[in-house]
Amino acid sequence: MEGGGRPSATQAVLLAASTAVTALLYSVYRQKARVARGLEGARKVRLDGELRAVLLEAPGRCVPYAVIEGVVQSVKETLSSQFVESCKGVVQRLTLQEHKMVWNRTTHLWNDYEKIIHQRTNTTPFDLVPADGGAGVTVRVVKPLEAAELSLETVYEKFHPSVQSFTDVIGHYISGERPKGIQETEQMLKVGSALTGVGELVLDNATIKLQPPKQGMPYYLSSLDFESLLQKQESSVRFWKILTVVSGFATCAVLFFLLRKQYRHHRERQHLRQMQEEFRQAQERLMNTEGGEMLKNACVVCLSSTKSCVFLECGHVCSCHECYQALPKPKKCPICRQGITRVVPLYNS
After folding, report:
1. Whole-number CA gyration radius for the chain
2. Residues 6 or more apart from 312 whose CB is under 8 A from it?
3. Can you give the residue ranges of the RING-type domain (predicted)?
4. Quick one: three-class SS letters along 158-220?
5. Residue 1 in this model has a pLDDT that exceeds 70
6. Looking at the domain 298-345, which fold is it?
7. pLDDT tens sequence across 299-315
8. Is pLDDT of 276 > 90?
9. CA dihedral of residues 98, 103, 106, 111 (deg, nearest 10)
10. Do the beta carbons of residue 300 and residue 335 sit within 8 Å?
11. C-alpha–C-alpha distance, residues 143 and 123, integer Å
12. DSSP secondary structure string, 307-327?
């Protein structure tokens, strides 16, 4: 604590940072909890012949947040994998990712670093159809790339290591960056994959569409079934809740430490003021009782008892016997700070 009982700049910054982190974690937890509650309250509909009737009865021919499960089926043409034969899909993502080692000047260690240097995503219109192959009802999936979770299967992955000469190696060590290579990846949403869609279900003329919801809730196109998807979100909520509680306890501990320090400082100042007041009252009492003569013969340490010791070899008479006994070792004269070899009692007649 600084003078006046105020916290130091470091302590104030620590408390502010801890409070800010706790507030941020609580905000994320609230958002995750809201998403989990919304997902738990989503209306589950079956992809069958009664789906159209359900939408006709719904207000505005729309279910704001619905869960539907089906199998992916292309509307027109399909996308073919560039690397795997007979692999067809409706969403294709090609990624080139750079891998390298970067020297950390703080920890003095080489750290892995990954960077996407190119990514392209191709899509084609697709529907969700019943898993049992029943005909007559389909759901058109709209804007799949806006989904918060879009489950794509990795169908091809290859790492191309970088070829380096001796001169390149020396240059990389000097620059602090060592290239490892390029990773090439292809991911696809295959035709025939089981998919769980969570979003706004709307009947648009004769077409049933699944699209991003308008209430700010997330849009899901997941390969997990609904129960597994819900458990995944609830696990995320528990994780952020634990982080928030731990951070909150840390903030409370810092605050308690600062308040305790301030309280101790306040007690010390209060004790000091009390001692000063007692000293002032003792001075006034001595002045009033003996007319100043008592103060002249009073011990210079306690100002309450009379001088009763002669310190040798300096010869000063300045202390009572009790205060002499209380002097720290090695004992020195309070007046001249010379070492006291022996003490002779003083008898006043």
Report:
1. 41
2. 340, 341, 342, 343, 344
3. 299-337
4. EEEECCCCHHHHHHHHHHCEEEEEEEEEEEEEECCCEEEEEEEEEEECCEEEEECCCCCCCCE
5. no
6. Herpes Virus-1 (3.30.40)
7. 888 877 788 888 888 88
8. no
9. 50
10. yes
11. 9
12. P-EEEETT----B-HHHHHHS
Torsion from C-alpha of 134, 140, 143, 147, nearest 10 degrees: -40
Pair of tokens at residue 157: 């992955």
pLDDT tens for 77-115 read 899 999 999 899 999 999 999 999 998 888 888 899 999
Residue 44 confidence class, pLDDT cut points 50, 70, 90: very high
pLDDT per residue as tens digits for the range 146-194: 998 899 999 999 999 988 888 888 888 888 888 899 999 999 999 999 9
* C-alpha atoms less than 13 angstroms from C-alpha of 294 in its C-beta half-sphere: 14
Chain-centroid distance of CA 100 in Å reads 28
Strand partners, 89: 79, 190
> By the 8 A CB rule, do 66 and 39 touch?
no
| 8-state DSSP, 71 | E
Average pLDDT of the residues in 132-142:
81
- CB neighbour list of residue 315: distance below 8 Å, 6 or more residues apart: none
